[in-house]
């Protein structure tokens, strides 16, 4: 069985927009969600800026019960539940009846580190002989699968409900895993996505590695500079993105709107061999992942029209462009349009792939390709491979055809998914 899979719902909780409408407006206009954080300055961070969704306290009441809100101290859970619930609603789906789960619907919702603030709070209580004050929801906020468990209970999904975790490749990997389950006839619908906590206990390790920009604390919106000659490191971010994947037959039967079709994808690892390491991708594996994704999708490399890259604003951006060029065998004006979301939201870590997939899919709905912020000074190694016209600085009118979205993560892991404008065959 190899059923067609489409996207019927989107949800987003991003630094530059909570909710689809707000996020779309920010992406359209190139509005950044990166801001200065006094907390980071007080803690002596070199990089004192970050991308963090702004959540009004009252808004949480629309997503959580009063019992769930009691002691809720996990930003990742908040972001993920909001994005996942919104995607379900956007797809026109209802929550399952209280007496029986929806056996045809499942969840694969990933994360990197979940509930670290709750864990810190719990450690403090335990160390001070106050373990009994932990509360009934401390476990579910700190277990890795807490986000899928929360969403599974809220929506009543009775199919596979689980959490994946593959560093920065998590969100894109989850889309592929959900697609494969529906393709195989094991589910009709899968809510897929990913989230990541925010705050100094998440971002501190990266600051210590000196891979975050430290010279933009007074000018945060100019700090995230993917593909730029003046890039000086990635800006840490957080949030969540979510998508409802559905079998085409189910979507057509209930008259659902369709954002795009998921044609295929591939997941692999460079094994930390060759030039690959814990923090650097193996170029051979990256190219192999791209080519295997195209093969799985039944697409020729000459057909790729738009790329949404990983492109983190580090020295590896030029290497990534070279990998795309060599894998596709395309250069100059023949290179696909390429953009990256990180110039506006920073690097949302485990949430990055899903946030960027939502941005990519919105381009189909609106018939455009979002621009790239902060790369007016394109890296010379990139310009040697790609004509500048293929890297739009502002949003352009262009309905995407075949689109490749890739993510590469710590541990030398890769994921690439192929989307297409939905067409009846």
UniProtKB/TrEMBL annotation:
Enzyme class: transferase
SMART domains: PKS_KS
Cross-referenced Pfam families: ketoacyl-synt, Ketoacyl-synt_C
Subcellular location: Cytoplasm
GO biological process: fatty acid biosynthetic process
Catalytic activity, reaction form: a fatty acyl-[ACP] + malonyl-[ACP] + H(+) = a 3-oxoacyl-[ACP] + holo-[ACP] + CO2; (3Z)-decenoyl-[ACP] + malonyl-[ACP] + H(+) = 3-oxo-(5Z)-dodecenoyl-[ACP] + holo-[ACP] + CO2
Cellular component annotations (GO), alphabetically ordered: cytosol
Record key words, sorted: Acyltransferase, Cytoplasm, Transferase
Record-linked InterPro entries: Beta-ketoacyl_synthase (IPR000794), Ketoacyl_synth_C (IPR014031), Ketoacyl_synth_N (IPR014030), PKS_Beta-ketoAc_synthase_dom (IPR020841), Thiolase-like (IPR016039)
Ketosynthase family 3 (KS3) domain ranges (all copies): 2-421
EC number: 2.3.1.41
Molecular function GO labels: 3-oxoacyl-[acyl-carrier-protein] synthase activity
CDD domains referenced in this protein's UniProt entry, alphabetically: KAS_I_II (cd00834)
Major subcellular location class: cytoplasm
Subunit structure: Homodimer.
Classification via PANTHER family: 3-OXOACYL-[ACYL-CARRIER-PROTEIN] SYNTHASE 1 (PTHR11712:SF306), POLYKETIDE SYNTHASE-RELATED (PTHR11712)
Family, per entry: Belongs to the thiolase-like superfamily. Beta-ketoacyl-ACP synthases family.
Protein name from the UniProt record: 3-oxoacyl-[acyl-carrier-protein] synthase 1
